[in-house]
Amino acid sequence: MSQSRREFLRNAAASGIAIVVSRVAFLDTLQAQAATMDPPGGWKGAPGQARYRIDGLAKVTGKKIYARDFQARDLPGWPVPETHVFVLRAAFADRIVDGVSTDFLPPELRPKRIVTAADLARDGIGIAKEDYPEGNYLVPLGKRPDYLGQPIALLFYDDPAALRGARPLLRYAPQAIVTGASAPLPEMTYYEPETSIVHVVRKGREPFAERQRFAQTIGGPVRPSEPGKRNAEAMQYVEEISRRIADAGWKVHERTYVTQMTDPMFMEPESGLAWLDRGTKTLHLLIGSQSPEYDAAGAAALFAPKDCKIGLEQVSFTACYPGGGFGGRDTSILCLYLALAAAYADGPIRIAHDRFEQFQSGVKRHASKIELAMAVDDAGRFQAVRNHTFLNGGGRINVSSYVAQVAGIMGAGAYDFPLADIWSRAEHTRSPVAGSVRGFGTEFASFAIESMIDEIAADLKQDPIELRLRNVLHPDWSVVTGAPHAPPGMQEMCERALAHPMWRERAKRRAARSNEQRAYGVGFALAMKNYGTGADAVYQAVEIDRDGKIVVTSHAVDMGTGTATTLAITTARALGANADEVKTGEIAIFKKLEMVESFAEQKDNPRWTPITFMSHKSATTSSRWVFGVDQASRLLFEVGLLPAARAIWGARASRLGARDVQWKDGKLVARGLPPLTLAQVAQRAHDDGRVVGVMTHAFFSGRWIEADYTVDGTTARWPIDGLAVRRGGGTSDWALIDRQNPQLFTVESMWEGNGQTFGASACLLAVEVDRRTGEVTVDEGVHFLAPGRILVRDLLEGQMEGSFAMGVGFALLESLPPYEDGASDGRWNLNRYHVALSGDCALHRVEKVILPPESPDAPARGIAEVAFCPVAPAIANAVAHATGKRFHGLPITPDAVRAALA
Amino acid sequence: MAKIELDVTINDEKFHRDAIDEDLKLVDFLRDEVGLTGTKFCCGIAVCRVCTVAIRRVPGGHEEAIRSCTTPLSDVNGKIVTTVEGLDKDGELHPLQKSFLENFAFQCGYSAPGFLMASYCLLDRLRRSPVPKADVDDAIQDAVGQHVCRCTGYVRYHRAIRQVILATPGLTV
User: Fold this and answer.
1) What span, in angstroms and rounded, lies between the C-alpha atoms of A133 and A127?
2) B172 within a domain of the structure (yes/no)
């Protein structure tokens, strides 16, 4: 919960540049088109169910929904045509950039204009120092690039054909960049804050919350680099843990693991449009993003300095449907360059990466080094863990410090350690920018710890799964931060895997299926992963028209995970019907709530909240946005529709509460009263001027902020911290309802409560290793998941399947060199960077085991990241079982296997 | 850049250009010149196959799945192109489109047009040369096994295609 990012956004807002984010307007058109092939709402199943994705029809008919599909001519009011901009990037960081020259190009392929850092400096373009402290959006002439892939210049073309011809010549053309003297590579530093988690219990095992001697939940985070008694005490414990590991007589396993840099490789290379309308001083942006608000604020920050010569009063951001994301579109870098280019064009501009450029510029998964030590006693009980994880954070901070933070929180895996010394940090290097990618820091410890457990089991001559069972966290035991939040299902996954024929017969099968050519092995891994960020905020509105049509508005972004579909069916619990429309990526409407954010509590301000909004990540749909829409729907029902129903039913119903009625077959029923359709109730609510729209803000950190709200004379407590209502009867204004008696947070209470929530997954699988080629093939698998309440099973299973495939790629296929011969050199594409194909994924031979909800009120957990985490370590363990050789680095390439078997 | 006179039929509509760059790639022509953005661009080097469209040499001819990102216009002159926008007819979705929807086959959807067009060509091939039911999975793997999708894990694409093949008379023996 670093404050820098939040400060950055506030500073952008304080610049006076208004920010408006809305979805692309194409959806209205799409619905008109869709009506000819499928009735509106054809996606709907029964209430709470979906026949197919709400966005499905647009996708199977090839409609314009992705940013790449749009040109200026598609956008009402935009001048045409657009100028096409190429971003020239550095593939080196060891020489001075003296200039840019396109003289080597044939005349017809030369740009009409080149913008460099000198232009930005002359015009007072700003730098969002808090978010990008290293500054230089374009490498200043006379300086060395800060990192590989850093943009040097923007090249403008009127003729798209000319740019098409020039692209391959510019992409990896050293002659375009005039270089000067060599310059020493920068010293490696790291991004603040680093994460240090020290966990010490007095003795014994769970439940032992009261026995904790030192934990993050007691007094907040440790900052070793800062003074203070608590930090000093923490370091004393660190030393004591090292002493105990060395001297306590435990068996100690110590090893360094490494994982590779990868690309999220979402299918749509990033593209976008921008237009600085100088008449209205509005910067229009169109892009597919996971973080529209952050991106818009970042663009505004460029023009915020008082001496900036680019006059700007408003940023209007249109959020398109991302063609994949996986985290890689969170805090997009492209958006800043769209904004910069627009400032130097007379009309709209377009930047459309090809795949080579996407590899050059896109956010990467961090390469990691994990120095891991685990101490285990003679009985096979884990006693101590020391996990020091170092991530290659690349040349811009992006969200690297947050990824390192999660790497720390998940640094003890799914297990109970009485002693834990965990330290993680993202190093500032010359590598391409690294940031959020599925796994978000958990995948590093998952690979290291799950690999080491198998080594320990071999050393102790114990069954690896039984060893895990001996040490796995039980539900609600304390995780390494000290918070009692361990998820359910992990023991059951281990037990089921232990009993599975693939595991029980693994020795026999290995003997039967291994020969001189091939080696067969079985591996297992368990993963626990936080979902949400520890401080999550959601906006939503639920409205109903006179005909009973329900519209949900949210600032969530659907990047393919099914968020829009899931939000659409969420209204059914309270309103008896699925939503008819879901507007995602909206933010402007929520300004009506007038929420004010700051980490410092503002007790007397009824609009205060710790965070107003968040980007779409961390598998938060099922847990946070669904909760928000569900609560808003309930509120709409209780303060608007139920009173309207009572009015229809008359005096006999005057005391009916929400628990006395239910939706059945699309009608609201109460004992002894005639059933009412949703449209009947909605019409009455509109006629009577009752509440027909509810807009809420909600904040979660281990619990939701809750408060009392009085609507139409009735006071009730709701788990929200901001409320506005809209009434029927002709007025469309939203009216704010002040909260009362809120149960708020302080920064300290957030740390103490440790608002993380966790889910669990596991993987049991078999591999075949070709001894001659070194190729590893996944043969079959069992994928376990404990999602809690299931919202849309098809979407859930789809996330598991996608996670499995990405896990195969992470384990066996995907890798980018982190430095000069890596992604920034302009030569990387899918001919060299291999992602999993269907033939790699044991298609139709991976069983999904989805554990039932642990209780009737089990939450719907975020699963899209945790399901990814056990796959790669399970493959590594299976390869070790097959070959007798352990691989301490990913990916496990044919070369590495051949070398090990040589 | 040499120019050619272009005549091509796309989704039953004839397109003519008096002079157009012969090396212009079909995907760029479809997306930028014609406005049919349903055909997607991803790798640009004919590996991922999201840009797949169907091409016939003559009316009633074989539907051939080709990668439009590396196919120059000179190669499609005089031919008949079908893109994802041409699959639905008379207000009815193609059975593959329906099956993709009902199986939740795609997620972000960016790869879906390529899978649709490759499997559309597969259906045409099976119509002409049916295969035993036991060989259907292999036929699907032949048709779409090299297609890249980053979201799904491929399971539901294959399931959706198989359902259509097995439900369509004459495709299997």
Assistant:
1) 8
2) no
